[in-house]
Every structure is written in C-alpha cells, then in structure tokens.
Predict the structure.
Amino acid sequence: MADLESAQLLAELEPTVADNLNRHMATADEWMPHEYVPWSLGRDFADLGGDPWEVAQSQLSPIARTALEVNLLTEDNLPSYHREIDRAFGRDSAWGTWVNRWTAEEGRHAFCIRDYLLVTRGVDPVELERARMETMETGYEALDKSLLNVCAYVSFQELATRISHRNTGRYTAEPI
Ligand SMILES: [Fe+2]
C-alpha cells in the first residue's frame, strides 16, 4: 500500500490521469493482433506429424530473430509489470482503470509477435518457450522506487519499447 506521500501524489495527479485516459480512449484506434499474422503459412510441428523447426525455415536475419525474441520476452514478462504498476498506482479511480487498460493493450503485443513468429517459423519455438519460462520465473521487481520514479520509468520504458519495435521492424525487411 502506498505511503502517505504517495497517496497524496496519486490523489493530486488523478484528475490529470483521468483527462489523459479519456483522451486516449476517445482517440485510440482499435486494432486486432490476428490481422497481422499470415495464418496461411502455418503448419504442424513434429509432435503432430509435421516438421520440427530448423533455422533454414526462418526468413528473418539473425539480428531480426534476436531482436524479435528479446522484444517478445520483454512483452511476455507482463504479469510482473502488472504486479508492479498495480502496487505503485493501485486499483482505484483513473489510475486503476489505466493499469488494467495498459495491461490489456500490452497483452496483445505479445500475442501478435508470438503468433507471427510461430506461424512463419521465424525463431526456434523450443528455445523461445524455454527462454519465456526462464524470463518469467526470474520476474521483474521495481524494488523500492518512489511513485515519481515509477512514473518516469514507465514513461521512458514505453518510449524505449516503441523505438525498439520500430527498429526491429526495419531490420526484418518484412512488409507485415
Ligand atoms: Fe508492449
């Protein structure tokens, strides 16, 4: 639970959060992760009688494979991030609405990238899954950051992630 100073700050910032949340909700375009996945390229893996993954099946360059895997693992750690922002910002008022909305939005980033990578055989699915398990078991801890530090961290992290995804898109040289 937030200490007194954090509680005061949350209350003071709440109208600004509400304004910006409402602005976002009014202007954000709905998008569908499944629309970015070329499902017709998908086929079974070995346990269902298909071919196991081989690196030659991937159309991605090594640098694009690495970038997509790292970006996806970062997205996959969402439960940890949710826990931390829930702890920092709480479940009440516009803060809580934003926490849930942000978490829901983040979730579809991972769906989209994972489905794309599995369907196109872009990365080794076994290595990817093992790395996901390890990443999530390690988790993420915001430690004892102050409320303002958490706000700053989330803001910079969002921008950093956007830059990372855009650069990754460039390296894939893949129109989708
Ligand atoms: Fe994301």
Remarks:
- Helices lie at 4-27, 62-76, 78-89, 93-120, 125-138, 147-172.
